[in-house]
Amino acid sequence: MEDIRLKDLSLDSILELIKFRNPEQKEFHQAVHEVMETIVPFIKDHKKYQNTGLIERLIEPERSVLFRVPWEDDNGNYRVNRGFRVQFNSALGPYKGGLRFHPSVNLGIVKFLAFEQTFKNSLTGLPLGGGKGGSDFNPRGKSDAEIMRYSQSFMNELHRYVSNVTDVPAGDIGVGEREVGYMFGQYKRLTAEFTGVITGKGLAYGGSKVRTQSTGYGLLYFVNAMLRNRDESIEGKKVVISGSGNVAQFACEKAIDLGAKVVAMSDSNGAIYDKDGIDEEKLEYIKHLKNVKRGRIKEYAEKYNCEYKEINPWNVDCDVALPCAAENEITEKEAKQLVNNNVICVAEGANMPCTVKAIKILQESGVIYAPGKASNAGGVAVSGLEMTQNANRLSWSFNTVDERLINIMQRIHKKCVKYGTNGNQINYLKGANIAGFIKVADAMIAQGNV
Ligand code: NDP
Ligand code: 2IT
Fold first, then answer.
1. Is the CB of 200 under 6 A from ligand 1?
2. Could you read off the pLDDT of 13-24 as tens digits, one per residue?
3. Which residues are designated catalytic?
4. CATH code assigned at 82
5. Quick one: what percent of the chain has pLDDT higher than 90?
6. What is the rounded CA–CA span in Å between residue 192 and residue 186?
7. Nearest bound ligand to CA 174?
8. The whole model's pTM is what?
9. Does 316 score more than 80 pLDDT?
10. Are 196 and 206 in contact (CB under 8 A)?
């Protein structure tokens, strides 16, 4: 058999290698494809990145941990789920990235998320490496006691691989302040240390102000920067948001705050369409419905007497579309629907919600498209600020953190413009990938073949 190695620096060879090494991890293949499609031509023009085995190292995680998570449900049954932590790249700092609890979680999903996270964290300008983790545990319908036992059991194993200076997890789908609190408590008990090992903590015990809001707010700060760059503004724009969880709720809040009209939101069962717009009071109802009652978005339609359909929210007339739920929710079909409905801007709150083909359709139709690694980086950026506050035993005010978040999102926008401008068009995907890559690649080269 031939040696397993990257034959040359073409996209085809890169994809061949990762498909050979990681068969069936289709989301990971997709993420590598999406990044490398813009990096390969850049490397061709920059010799420095050509001869170091750099790309081979960049597409292979430094470490992947898989573990059994045993737990007991409320009926006394012994149950088992799988836990994952992929520590993808530590060139820029300790591994950093969220934990996802969802039945769809597998190694390929965690790897795609950790790979994307590496470039996203680079874009924030903060000293953060890239990692991601999670479990195929389904939090839906579980009691609070079950969630606590599960989170504790998950940390019983995870604590061996994380610390405030090696790897700092946070939330993602299915993991919010409640789960972070249980995991933090268990880590503290296991290690007898009170350190910032995880971010997204409650404000009473080391959490940062604005962390809860940061991904959604940051998304809108980024959208505003993109629109302003075209002498437009978000004010008065009709906005459609998918999801109704953490990112979607605070994207909606900031959109309303900036004078936009949000007409649709969704969950994994269906979407509501409220032609009058979701106002602050209605949004409070959604927060209560989702965060406290853990109900379905359908109940909003019943309460406010509006349209509800068991489909995604994309086939409506809108100016701005913000996918804030899950990967691959916008395929070719939905991208065409959005274009036909005259969308001018699509910005990703979720990670990889648009397929490679969907992105091409949007870009070729002149839609301004922002990839998640740029537009949803506000969440991890404020996590980075939480780490700084914890390390210095400080707690900054809401305004201080919010201003830093605004600055970080504006700086990310500038980097996308710097590396993505082509004539009078800005390719935000290209800009984000190249800007994210340069910093990671330079640090890797400086640190040698490790
Ligand atoms: P939440 O668990 O708070 O909310 C997830 C929302 O998405 C829910 O409304 C959920 O519906 C919906 N959803 C989940 N899976 C699917 C699916 N397969 N199809 C349709 N809808 C689905 O998670 P977050 O808001 O934190 O995360 C949303 C996205 O944002 C993810 O892609 C995440 O990786 C990304 N992200 C999150 C950050 C954060 O700080 N939290 C930071 C950056 C990105 P239901 O209730 O029916 O399951
Ligand atoms: O996808 C993401 O950037 C997150 N889920 C947040 C990660 C973090 O460490 O705050």
1. no
2. 999 999 999 999
3. 132
4. 3.40.50.10860
5. 98
6. 10
7. 1
8. 0.98
9. yes
10. yes
